[in-house]
Design a protein that fits this description.
Elements lengths: L6 H15 L11 H24 L6 H18 L2 H10 L6 H10 L2 H18 L2 H28 L28 H14 L5 H20 L5 H23 L13 E8 L2 E8 L1
Antiparallel strand pairs: 1-2
Length: 285
């Protein structure tokens, strides 16, 4: 029997768990129940505040921000021109992909599993009164919620045909109810890459970061070889994920003392052209 859990119910479950299961518990330093409850209320405010902050950022964009937006847009258009070729390339190699990798790509990027993971991180931090874990959980939940809502709206508004629909890459039917017309952007890619970027921020070791980004990229790539999304869908989903996580993380700097990445936070983007290659290069500092 297959049980479908709605993301909203999972969030509610963790909220109830945090407020009831932890009620009456004492930490090793003897702090009262109210302190943990205060943490929880503060963190819920941080989640919604972070989402609102991320959504409002375009209103405050300045010169460099618009240049970044232009570079990402130009890179997406370039990838759009080769969507047919890249889709055929990936889909032809689907049979060569181990089933465990395909299963991981689908399951890790699903909203249900995403909220179970991010909720577990937050509840652990709340139980231990560990501010770094709490903040990480808040960043994960807020980023997933902000990007998740945004991608649902964009899917409906754009109505782009999926590769597996048999329709052309330039077929758009706004507000269509058919799921095969919900190609842009990729929900799996957005959630997986949001998680990867948020978690990678906790580490300084470049190899650890690289491993996290690779694991986060598999769900995104799997959507291409499954014929669920075009390469341009996935690429712009990655840009949305990174921009959202960065915005919310800056907002959380005002709300928490623990700064695991206290250095200057910067994401630089460059268009890259070369013999047989083109795209957007993202430098994470």
């Amino acid at each position: 029997m297959k049980i479908n859990l709605k993301p909203e119910l999972i969030v509610l479950f963790f909220a109830i768990l945090a407020s009831n299961y932890l009620h009456g518990q004492q930490t090793s330093n003897g702090s009262s129940d109210d302190t943990r409850w205060d943490y929880f209320k503060h963190d819920i405010g941080s989640i919604f505040g972070g989402m609102g902050y991320a959504y409002s950022r375009p209103v405050h964009w300045q010169g460099d921000d618009w240049l970044t937006f232009g570079a990402v847009s130009a890179g997406t258009v370039l990838l759009y021109t080769v969507d047919d070729e890249t889709s055929r390339f990936f889909r032809k190699r689907k049979e060569d992909i181990p089933q465990i990798v395909s299963d991981y790509g689908f399951l890790y990027g699903s909203p249900e599993n995403n909220y179970m993971l991010t909720g577990a991180v937050y509840v652990t931090g709340l139980a231990l009164k560990n501010e770094k874990l709490r903040r990480t959980g808040v960043l994960l939940i807020a980023s997933a919620s902000a990007t998740g809502f945004l991608q649902q709206v964009l899917k409906s508004v754009t109505g782009r045909a999926r590769p597996r629909s048999g329709l052309a890459k330039n077929y758009f039917e706004p507000f269509a109810s058919d799921k095969d017309l919900h190609s842009f952007p990729s929900g799996h890619a957005i959630l997986a890459l949001s998680n990867a970027h948020a978690i990678a921020k906790q580490f300084k070791n470049v190899w650890v970061k690289s491993g996290i980004y690779i694991l986060g990229s598999i769900p995104a790539l799997s959507r291409i070889w499954e014929g669920a999304h075009w390469l341009s869908d996935v690429a712009l989903s990655a840009a949305i994920s990174i921009a959202t996580v960065e915005s919310i993380d800056r907002y959380l700097d005002r709300r928490y003392d623990e700064k695991y990445n206290a250095g200057a936070k910067k994401v630089s983007w460059n268009l890259k052209f070369g013999l047989g290659q083109m795209g957007v290069v993202i430098h994470l500092h």
